[in-house]
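Before the break, one more example. Copy the sequence into your notebook; we will annotate it together after we see the structure.
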Amino acid sequence: MPEIKLTVFSDEETLDIGRALGKKFPVGTVFLLTGELGAGKTTLTKGIAEGMGARGAVTSPAYTFVREHGDKLVHVDLYLMDPEKFDALGIEEYFDGTRSVIVEWADRLPRAFRRSLDYTVDINMKIIDEETREIYLVYEPLFKRYKREFDELR
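Here is what the structure looks like once it is written out:
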């Protein structure tokens, strides 16, 4: 699958990447974020929300699982989610293409559900050192349609 590796050296650079993603991708895109605790997933989410012009302050909805930001964006955090209870959460309604969805800890999504999603951007974040992060964007379904936008992020 096509992949882009970006290296950032500050939270501000992470926000800038998020802003670019939020501006360039259409409403309905699903951003699936993975990476260890402290890698910058929520910081990237804040940038995506800013780039989209979404309303409300972005904080991790770890205990509520879902936070809506106006009619453009839904932020889901599955860090504390028991995969056995995913169906009871009822978030399927958010994946209808009418707004973008950002899922932190997307590796906790059940595989069957994840395969049913269209227009996804998989984002894996890695901690290199105290200041440095690597962001890997994998975008097979969107590659042909948005190749120029991804190339501009490099």
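Residues 11-24 form the longest helix (14 residues). The chain has one domain: 3-153. Try to locate both features in your own notes.
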